[in-house]
Amino acid sequence: MAELLNMSGIDKAFAGVSALSGASLQIAPGEVHALIGQNGAGKSTLIKILTGVYRRDGGVVNFNGAETVLTSPREAQATGIATIYQELNLVSLRSVTENVMMGYEPKRFGVLINWKEAHRRTREILSRFGIDIDVRAPLGSYSTAIQQLVAIARAVSLDARLVIMDEPTSSLDASEVEVLFGVVKGLREAGVSVLYVSHFLDELFEICDRVTTMRDGRTVDCRAIAGTTKLELIAAMLGRDTDEIAEAGMTEFNAGMSGAEKGDVLLEAQGVSTGPRLNGFDMTLRKGEIIGLGGLLGAGRTEAARAIFGVDRLLSGKVEIKGQPGALETPAAAIAAGFGYLTEDRKAEGIIPDMSVRENLTLALLPKLTKSGQIDRARERELVDHYIKALGIKTANMEQPIRELSGGNQQKVLLARWLAIDPDVLILDEPTRGVDVGAKREIQGIIRDAVARGVGVVLISSEFEEIVEGADRIIVLNEGRIVTELTNPGITEDALVRALAHTEGQAA
Amino acid sequence: MLDTDTFDLRKYLSRNPQSVAVWVTLAALILFGLLRYDNFGGAYNITSFLNYNSMFIIISVGMCFVIMTGGIDLSVGSVAAFTSVIAAYLSPYGIEVALPGAVLAGIGFGAINAVSVVVLRIPPFIATLATMLGAKGGALVISGAQTISVDWGSNFTKMGMEKALNVLPWSIVVVGVVVIVLWVVLEKTSLGRTVLAIGGGEDASTLMGLKVHRATAFVYLLSGGCAGLAGVILASGFGAGQPLEGIGWELSAIASVVVGGTLLTGGLGSVTATVAGALLLGLVFNILNFENGRGTISFSAYWQMVIRGGFLFAVILFQARVMAGREQRKEAT
Question: Global pTM?
Fold first, then answer.
């Protein structure tokens, strides 16, 4: 079979540091091809070379039977390569139509945009994806899922031969993922190739034909997905043995196995409500315990975390902290009470991109580091140094801007930020989202160690294995209410899925 | 939900809540003026008001394009002063030479800004601050720090002092045409949409394959050209090139743009609302003058500035309330 895309021997270095050395990638026409690898393996760099964002230092790119040198995203689009980036690269202030049509608007007299036609075409394109929305409204007024589908619609409308999807499902819920998969299958049937990059390995088995694995800037494996196991893929990504991994379990967690007595009650919530999204939430968290919050997107998990941390005001309900009645009114009060909250949206609510690793790490700690208005710099450095080593944060030095770190390492800095205040309670909302397999295990290990020291953890995660293996108890939520509680040991993914499915049944 | 292409005021306002405040306030002020002062709606007041404010309208609209990309142009006032001197020197050759000459000079300063921002990657605030100082110094140098009288024998002063077909002053006709063209550029061309997209997200725009550099350069050239046109109107209307004028014009222009609901961070903006913003700020002065004319109270020029500042604050507050109310309604649904 003639390949649509053939990249071989691709080299790329940034400031002398090699990001890719001899990487290759082949994609057949009408194929859904997965590209996997840890963060820093070179996937993003390879994609950016393919889409004209970066220039390659060496190697050959053959697209559609001709050697190509792509020098700009525009050129790549014109050649038939469209990309949907991990961070949605759309303009949320502008209308849906503009985001779909931008740069390719239908014109009258060759100059003036024919808005009527543009809106009509946009509606038509979106209707193919089963979306019926007001295309004149700003894109930002719609959910992330819709925005994602709009990005895909844009790509498809450009008559792409190859559509690159970088982590397309990371912000979608289960039903939206189904819609997306439908779209991907539709593309395949239409003879369009899809390069599918995802950390969610389960997805790959559902829609991909072949999978290419990268590690340390090289292509290490390419195989048909049929007949492959998840374990083999993880092993290829990590460069480890399959047996070794099977032995250790999929996560670093081992919940409910220690059998140790749980300590004093840290937090007790009764009948907490903050609005329609959280209604009558109960929870008792003890020292050295991980409570998982289960549920689908919008079930009220994040709302529960926000209520506990004093972000949202309670409409009703009682909260006791270490036996003291009274809810936390503000995040500042929560931090003073020894609470830490790792938010779901690392980019928007967590890191301050242009600040250094050091500054990001000690933000929540500054009041404690300050003596009579002076920040104790020596102590600060000592602390930062300690956490960089303890958590294995990969950074050139503590003054490196955090935006230059990989997602996993950014997340570790944020974890360190909260660990540094020596917390009693840690609320972790999707702590390993968008993080590669290796970093994921390291982060899970960090959480496990904190719990062993007596920290109480509230864990929210969309990854079943993480919550099933990690939580001592799982509180399952649906539409802002608690539907059931599961206790480890003994929770299986099946049991959790059944609990969720059950709630779905009730809702319908 | 199906939407049609017919103009629906309610839909327009619900999609452009940031522009609601300026239109409502403008209408209220006009109504207030019409009811309170006898000559407010008279032809003389209207034409002299528009004639004087045409300079600010054109500068504000140029500024609006720059701000929509997320940039700023602080040089417009100085450039207008500089080009008014150029226009005065060129006035003996007639308006047909002086006008393009001065506008080209303005575009020249715009080109310096464009190169600084696009090629040299200097932040717009700094780049245009440098141009502002340069243009101001340049105006003083070429004029010897004197006002330069225009040639009254040529047709140059027609632009600022006479009316087209005895109805509208030439200045407002020219500015009106330019504003309409720019409205079309913003609303109906890829260039205009790219300007807005850049302000909404420069990286996203690049990755969408838009011509980001070209559009960014365009807005600075445009703003320079608009300042050049304002310089021509200034020289023509007052009969002299004015090297010392233009101080604080950039701030008035920014105020007009912001009152019109254009986001200072870019991505959202409107030509028509900017014009309304410029008219609104001018109208406050106009009404204060009428109030002084009635003799009951008398505001000094200094107090007028204070009142205008307070008024500006009130409109922005109003605008913020409209936006906040809309957010709440969105949450509720």
Answer: 0.72
